[in-house]
Structures
1.
Amino acid sequence: MSKRIRKLQRGAIDLMGIAVGLTIISITAIGTSYSLLYGRQALIQQEHYRTALFKLRGFMEEEMARMRFSDYYRGNQSWWGAPNDLAPYSLDVLTDRDGDIRPTYATIYRDPIEYVDDAITRMAPDYFRITAHAEWTEAAIPGITTADKGDDAGRDQQITLRTTFHLPR
Amino acid sequence: MSFIKSVLRKVGLGTLTRAAGFTLFEQTIVIMIGSTALLGGWAAYRDFSMQWRVSMAERQMDQYAQAAMSEMINVLQWSMGSQQLAGGRNPLWRIAIGEYVNENGGFNAGQDLGSGHFPYIHDGYFSSTTSLYDPPMTGGFITLSHRSNQGILLNGRQPEWANSRSGMYVWRGDNRSGPNELAAMDRRDEMSVKSFSIDFPLYQDPATNVFTDEISRKKFGESVMKITLVMQYRYRAEDVIGLYGDDYIRERVYETSVASLNFGESIVNNRYFQEFIQGRLIAH
């Protein structure tokens, strides 16, 4: 093999080495970047869940207190015997990340309050039961305003809580 | 080329050949490529490290908010009611904690941290005063406030579960020198409680207008406390060429309502209710 060919081969091997090295570095960089971004997006979804959960349980306690501490609501079966809801509740803070977010809104509502009466106990009612729900749709790319409209169809989320309570004497 | 040669000769570089001119040109390009790569690498490194910090701090903020909200729900549900002592940006509330209800078999001797399940010391208000009408009741008030760089304060102090000295939560990192040089949080990172507020949402309820007497109105209006916690994480990095700019701010708001299980007539002889809602005479 001539010197000239050997020289060309060495150059080609160097180029190959550089290409492979750059590819490995790029894949590592892209992978690290995406895992960090994915982790932060997962955290946003977790925060949405917590925000909705706290608001939902608060809504239930307010409804419970309305029944416990006011004759106005307790005697109004058309109120407690019918569903009730909150205005759409934003799970994001509008000033977050300099406002560079697409707000996610949750619907928070309760089913009719159940009047649970067991004939054996001679109490009427034995207790009341509230079932309430929070529902929202996570954007496919949470927190990013620049996504196309088609990208918005993310997962539907729902939390359901149920509790029972007595009326104070 | 004779032009280049004459220029080189005029600046005293007449001995340089054409190859030397080519080398200079090549060197310039190599330096440009090299500096672009170095700058890009540096920017990428700074971005990675910032993303790493931001995600760590966001997770910490999320954990603090979760712990604080759970603890507030526990304390307020345990209480017999609450009063605002100071309003404005730094509100101060006092929460009535009674042991009359005999939770945990009456072992909630709040003056002694070791003997009860309720972990905060109260001022013994109900223990040290007696009602003219009712049997004595033990218990007292704890205060609730906040400071932006310490979070929620119970009795003016950072509670154990949020104590930064135990390393649980870092509100502001140290200088980037010494043993903490490689710590995840440094002086550029800052977590704070922007605001913490309590109010009585049922005073806004249409039903409050139905009550004809003040006691019933208060009993209904103050039966629920709404707490709102605003958390902020801020990263000040003035020397960054990167995705987030030099001042990155992340904010979260958590809100819930708590109905005290011991409020009003839910328990027999509720001293807080008698004295602060009904305004009945108490002997001190």
2.
Amino acid sequence: MKDWFAGGRVLYPLIGLGLLLMFDFFFVPNFFQFEVRDGRLFGTVIDILNQGSKVMLLAIGMTLVIATGGVDLSVGSLMAVAGAVAAVLVTRSDLPVPVVCGVALGAVLLLGAFNGVLVSLVGIQPIVATLILMVAGRGVAMLLTDGQIVTFENEALVYIGNGAFLGLPFTLTLVLAVWGGALLLTRRTALGLFIETVGDNETAARFCGVPNRLVKTGVYCFSAVCAGVAGLIAASNIKAADSSRVGEMMELDAIFAVVVGGTALTGGRFTMAGSVTGALLIQTLTTTMVSLNVSPAIIPVPKAVVIVAVCLLQSDKFRAEIGRVLGRKAMA
Amino acid sequence: MSDELLQIRGLAKSFPGVKALDGVDFTARAGEIHALMGENGAGKSTLIKVLTGVYRRDAGSMSLDGREIDPAFPREAEAAGISTVYQEVNLVGPLSVAENILLGRLPRRFGVINWRETRRRAEAALARLGLRLDVRRQLDSCSVAIQQMVAIARALDVDARVLVLDEPTSSLDEQEVAALFSVMRKLRDEGLAIVFVTHFLDQVYAVCDRITVLRNGALVGEYRSDELPRLQLIGKMLGRDPTPEAGDWRDSNASAGEILLSAEQIGRRGHMNPVTLDIRKGEVVGLAGLLGSGRTETARMLFGIDPAENGEIRIEGRPVRLTSPARAMRAGIAFCSEDRKAEGIAPNLSVRENLILAMQSGRGVLRKLPLSDQLELAERFTAALGIKTPSPETPIRNLSGGNQQKVLLARWLAVQPRLIILDEPTRGIDVGAKAEIEKLVRSLRDKGMAVLFISSELEEVVRDCDRVVVLRDRRKAGELSGAEISEHRVMQLVAQSDA
């Protein structure tokens, strides 16, 4: 329970999400309506969970990277790589789908290791190191697909992004599996402590014998795999690998989700629950806008307003200031 | 006196919880090099920062050439004629030498930079230091010594009358220091007042006319350097009487056993000259010497932070390669850094997490210490060391300095090392906590642990150590053991001249 709330930091994005859902309840018709068709649940809320799965996955990986004091800008491009690898293999070979997915994830894992080595061994600043793959990764994906959109009909691959499991979108199962895996990895072993120490005071961590470089390389690898899973979902959604468009600007959504969720960009303490909440907040906002027929061109504006509001709520200083102003008014 | 260029009287400056300067007088005279001396926390850097407009003073007066000054920021001090060259070279590497010298005041014509004039002025500024080089060169490509000269040239370009050199020699080799000194003498003869901050005694006596000593934010005194013998100077800096104590006697250490660690001529270029020392089981070995004498450097070599480049380290007779803290830990060594904040605590993590960190990393990432064991350890050490914390889950940054220090000690005691290196374990903590830590050191020794104890407090070194290795100017100056150990003897060794 304590871990879930992470010292109250998960509280603020949850409040934000709650307020937004309340708004939706009153102003968006049929927002909380559910419908069962073919043994599967449908509804706006389910849509949000399904649509938000990609950002949730990216945010889970990004949380660990940001906790070490880094950032991973390459996740959007890595989504494209994973999608491209899977689409090409499934259309041009007879490999079974689990192997195809394995190869796709293996490929992005290697690219993640490249990020990690640049940051931890070569000592390049994370924002620069991952910018390399952000730019180059999409090029690699384009090369794999010859610059074309590669479409596929393979049922198993289409299931990943469109299928239902236990009446809910299969994408949710993937999110829960990755989240659960990450929780096991960080909280059942000492990895979480090491990540937080490296982010909080890297020198102190090194002086205590914490394997800094391994930890740092590891989080970039994990973030890449998360991006790979998100990439498979994205390709499966549209039954095609669209290397030039998939995952575009999604790295920023993921970073927003993490920051809004209460993990500081300076590193240290992290909360994946917060990041997932943040991702849902962003997705709910987008869906709300679309339901209200707001033009897609101006959606970023209200989105930005909400993000700023939640970030301000996260700031101890801002809350203290607000408290003072309100207190003064009460006195007068 | 007419040549008293800069007069500071009764200067005071406080920070929350600390009185950094308390009624300090300082006088710099034209045509003199004046050393500002003092150990850690003496108030040297605060004095310089007030002088150069980084801090505002709380009380007191400063006048330059009879005119009252109160610089609010560094540019104002520069305009008044006080220029500073800081310890870390404060320049812009990718720019040219000329740009660095004139940055912020590049000559312009018709609104654009006049490069010919820039070059001419830069060359003239360097010529004043007796230096000729292509000022179009990128600063990065020059040696540290040249960069230092460029920093001085930059300081002089503003018609400086007082030049403050804050530890300018710490990264220079001997020849470079000699070159710097001849420049300093030249500038002095031109009538500049030079304030020189350094930790190297030889350098003070080589180049300075006067010495002002500060201690704990207060003025100890101002002396002519030819009238103040080294031993007296050290006594004043440390606040100890350099005359021999009568009847110093201690029992020989019965608990000392066989040699645990022996370091043979270990050194690292630019950090520490080769040094040899042995540490026995159940023995407290002190490392004494002034700030910058190589105490921390030696400790960092032994813990694999800045590994020794030459020489050999043996543990129980077997050669070991201590190339990283993780390796040193596996060899049974623990290290409590002097810089608690930068190198010790993870401020936002809890007391419990900080305490078990070294133990956990020793076990490896997979064998997580169960939470119940963690809490048990935290409880045991909080009780044993008297750590005052509201709960084991409190972030360590909320604890006082002394309690943070105890948590860090506990962190290393939990791994049951064979040798623990304590670098200034009593710095910045209150008297009660100091006594407790000294007591703890003695009890560790009695349990057979080897302790390397580094402290600037001579009193502590003499009181707690079975053997003292004295360092001076990054060399071993001598070794004292048993009854030989006295403040007087340590100071004598520190004061010896290489000449």
